[in-house]
């Protein structure tokens, strides 16, 4: 007799599923990385499936096997806060101290927040328009509270979340659709 009861996957199962996915998907980019290195091109790995290959004086972003002119590579820059901030930082622009930590690693978040000194900001990598962004997190208790809120918004407990030092000041944004720069307080 079969049971209709569905037992949810454990954290270990979810982490194994993610590791298997990264190993399978990352294999394609490993092939590209090895060929670039064989040809003498410097490679900077950003994520398991994303890298920058420097050819001449040009840094070219590759996602999976898709090159810098492909929609997949461009979308990765636009949608992935971690990749975008890595590129901006490598270009010499100062960015707040940050880390990219799995949602289910509460103690790692707390240690990092203490190290860079509160207040901090949370930014889920896969949400947009400010959804899941939490500001003014100023204590371990507030950090745990906001991690629980993010857990309700993101699909997987092993999802990476960006945590960064919060600075007060003007916020400047470049809007590509209008090509205008605006500021707000």
From TrEMBL:
Outline the extent of the ATP-grasp domain.
85-135
Alphabetized GO MF terms: ATP binding; metal ion binding
Residues spanning the signal sequence = none
Which UniProt key words apply to this protein? ATP-binding, Nucleotide-binding
Q: By its UniProt entry, which SUPFAM superfamilies does this protein fall under?
A: Glutathione synthetase ATP-binding domain-like
Q: What is this protein called?
A: Phosphoribosylglycinamide synthetase-like protein
Give the species this sequence originates from: Alkalibacterium olivapovliticus
